[in-house]
Write a structure and sequence with these properties.
single chain; 77% helix; disordered C terminus; 16 helices; 0% strand; mainly alpha
Length: 444
């Protein structure tokens, strides 16, 4: 990539099927990103890939249990796959900024497909043991540190900036649909063809995505990675340190990290807190919690659609939604019956999903184009800390305060922290700044 700067990159060529720029800029439809042909193909590819991934994940835990007979080993395999995100996500993000986006995404998808095929072969030949399974999980985690930000940013590169929230919302819907389809197909596939077939099907899904990527074209108004990269200084070395420094100096991103962090630790883990609440104080069973989980899923889908309607997401919107979710969580903790809880669960899931969509849009559009991979890499490491530390912290809180107490205390902490942060920001914004010259004049 050239390091020379230009005042404004030329707009990319539009696909014949793309809508006029004026119609794209005025629409608030949650599906507006699908007006662009490449985005439609990318959504189909992501659905296939998500279905394959969830098909594999559905059978993977059972496979580990079958091999080891240990629930601890199952948890360890998941941790081994997640560990690279904690340690080297920043380097994966730097690679995404350095290399051409489409090539990076296609190669990473092909590598993930190769890992799935190797696993399928070893399962079919009965050669998979604990050591090889952990090694394959670690390799998958390493490749994912590059694949995650590459595929996320590639989808955004296909649509104009104002359609990015729609692209993210559609991606969330595709993720949910692929999860449902993959879980359903896993049982059928394993029942008729065996466990190895699920891994092979996942490998084929990765290859399908890799084969679609070369044919994707950005729509009119989309920011091209190559053109945007020309805006960087000639001395830019695509260093990891630059991404860390940008994140640390960006108040919006720090605020987003704070809001998301407090929400991740004291809320959001509803599969944990609500499971204990339903089966404990509300005296429900597995069927009751299944109903709660279904309502959570429906709320997530509704929230993704609403989030896709956003045009200019902001950290303030994310904070307001997170605070609202915290207050809803408090009311849910006070629910006297399962019926009341179900009424509260739906808006909780909707608010969480809209907040996630808005936050992702801010994260992926706020940094300059040539820094977005590294910023996503930093975010990947931060998110892994929350993912690994949140459930144990919440579990400890439930041990001390019970399920109701954890929901109530967690919700109050979320709303209170965000409210205090907002008041502090407003106070700083209203404090008049007196220049040194004015001070001298006053003293005289």
């Amino acid at each position: 990539m050239s390091s020379s700067s230009v005042s404004a990159p030329l707009p990319p060529a539009a696909s014949p099927s793309d809508p006029p720029a004026s119609s794209a800029s005025t629409s608030r439809s949650p599906w507006r990103s699908l007006r662009h042909r490449s985005m439609r193909w990318w959504s189909v590819a992501n659905f296939v890939s998500n279905a394959g991934t969830w098909m594999q994940l559905t059978v993977q835990n059972l496979l580990v249990l079958q091999i080891t007979g240990s629930a601890a080993a199952t948890g360890l395999s998941m941790s081994v796959q997640a560990a690279p995100a904690l340690l080297i996500s920043v380097f994966g993000g730097a690679a995404v900024d350095r290399w051409p986006r489409k090539l990076t995404a296609a190669v990473s998808q092909a590598l993930l497909g190769a890992v799935a095929f190797v696993t399928a072969l070893m399962v079919a030949l009965d050669r998979l043991d604990v050591t090889s399974l952990m090694v394959l999980a670690a390799v998958t985690g390493v490749v994912a540190t590059v694949d995650g930000p590459a595929c996320s940013l590639l989808g955004n590169d296909l649509v104009p900036r104002e359609d990015v929230p729609s692209a993210i919302g559609v991606g969330a819907l595709v993720h949910q649909a692929g999860r449902l389809a993959g879980a359903a197909l896993a049982g059928v596939t394993v029942g008729f063809l065996g466990t190895a077939a699920a891994y092979a099907a996942n490998g084929l899904s990765f290859l399908f995505v890799a084969s679609v990527i070369p044919f994707l074209r950005p729509a009119r108004g989309a920011v091209r990675q190559a053109g945007a990269a020309k805006d960087r200084d000639a001395k830019d070395t695509m260093s990891v340190r630059e991404g860390l420094a940008f994140f640390a100096r960006r108040p919006r991103l720090l605020a987003l990290a704070g809001v998301t962090g407090v929400s991740a630790v004291f809320g959001r883990n509803y599969q944990l807190t609500l499971a204990v609440l339903v089966t404990g104080p509300l005296a429900g069973g597995a069927g009751s919690f299944g109903t709660v989980s279904t309502v959570l899923a429906v709320g997530g889908i509704v929230g993704a659609v609403l989030g896709a309607r956003l045009r200019r997401p902001s950290v303030r919107v994310v904070g307001a939604l997170a605070a609202a979710g915290g207050l809803l969580q408090v009311v849910a903790g006070l629910s006297p019956s399962l019926a009341v809880l179900l009424v509260m669960v739906l808006p909780m899931a909707v608010v969480e999903s809209v907040s996630d969509t808005a936050g992702t849009a801010v994260l992926q559009t706020d940094p300059p184009a040539h820094l977005r991979g590294r910023v996503l890499g930093v975010w990947g490491s931060i998110g892994t800390v929350w993912g690994l530390g949140g459930p144990p912290a919440l579990g400890l809180l439930m041990e001390l305060a019970g399920a109701r107490g954890a929901l109530i205390a967690g919700g109050l902490i979320i709303a209170g922290t965000i409210g205090a942060g907002h008041l502090l920001r407003e106070r700083r914004a209203t404090v008049p700044r007196v220049s040194p010259l004015a001070n001298l004049e006053t003293a005289a």
